Amino acid sequence: MITFRNKIFSKSALVLGLFVAITILFAINNSQPVLGDSEFISSVNDMETFVVKDLENGKTYEFSVTYTTAIYNYDTGFAIYTNDNFKDKNKVLTQDDPGDGFEIANYTATADGDVYLGVWMNDNDYGSVDLSITEAGTSIDISYEDFYPSIWATLRWVWIMLGCIVGFVIIFGVLVFTFFIRAAKKHAWKVKDALASGIALPRHGRKKDKCPFCNVKLPPESMVTCPYCGAPITD
Fold first, then answer.
1. Which helix (H) or strand (E) holds 68?
2. Where residue 11 falls among pLDDT bands split at 50, 70, 90?
3. What is the C-alpha end-to-end distance of the chain, expressed in Å?
4. 200-201-206 Cα angle (round to 5)
């Protein structure tokens, strides 16, 4: 009796599992965009960036930014760059017609390799768009992927500031070291001349509590000669 109930439960679980799997696959299939891959774009101030892989020199490629929604119209724009810093000096194409609608433009590669794509929305729009990159005149899709800057690029200014600080500390340390070396040499010459001529020198050091000749700490009371080396000293 127990075995019979277990068989009924197993069959029910199998049917339920198949139903759930079919439902998920159906939902995934119907959620795919009509053109290209769907990407969420927020605003012109938060440009989404992509890297387009392995273009061939001299070939023309069609870049398109479209959308499939029937409720909203978007005012989109995009630009193509030759460098991943996305600066205007590296921009080779800008497509941003005024008003809502699709944005489509052709770009002829000037070298083999990757290019970088920036996509935005004007007028504070936001939503999902379909990106499509094909070889012009064909149906060959060109692969692209989200571009994520390296840690070095993200923290570039932090590294620059750290480098400046470290450089300043090194320069400051060299200057301080040079100052103390020169002061020590100057004092050594003074001691050498004093020993040769037999003249007294005043107490030495930051607290003026050391013998200028042997550099040993002196008692606080006034002394005519150093009790350690016998050299003449003054207050």
1. none
2. low
3. 113
4. 160
Q: Give me the mean pLDDT over the 112-116 stretch.
A: 95
Cβ(38)–Cβ(130) below 8 Å: yes
State how far the Cα of 2 lies from the Cα of 175, in Å rounded to an integer: 90
For 22, phi and psi rounded to 5 degrees?
Answer: -65, -40
The predicted structure's pLDDT at residue 1: 43
Give the C-alpha separation, 212 to 209, whole Å: 9
Q: Which residue has the tokens 């995009």?
A: 78
User: How would you label 50-87 residue by residue, b for 16+ Cβ within 10 Å and e otherwise?
Assistant: bbbeebeeebebbbbbbbeeeeeebbbbbbbbbebebe
Strand 201-202 with 233-234, pairing: parallel
Query: Which distant-in-sequence residues (6+ apart) come within 8 Å of 121 by Cβ?
Result: 41, 42, 43, 44, 74, 75, 76, 77, 127
pLDDT in tens, 189-232: 888 887 888 888 888 888 888 888 888 888 888 778 888 888 88
pLDDT at site 23? 53
Spatial CB neighbours of 117, under 8 Å, sequence gap ≥ 6: 49, 50, 51, 52, 63, 78, 79, 80, 81, 131, 133, 144
Is the Cβ–Cβ distance between 133 and 141 less than 8 Å? yes
Whole-angstrom Cα distance, residue 139 to residue 61? 11
Is residue 120 within 8 Å of residue 47, measured between CB atoms? Answer: yes
* Pair 201, 234: CB distance under 8 Å: yes
At residue 64, the pLDDT reads 94
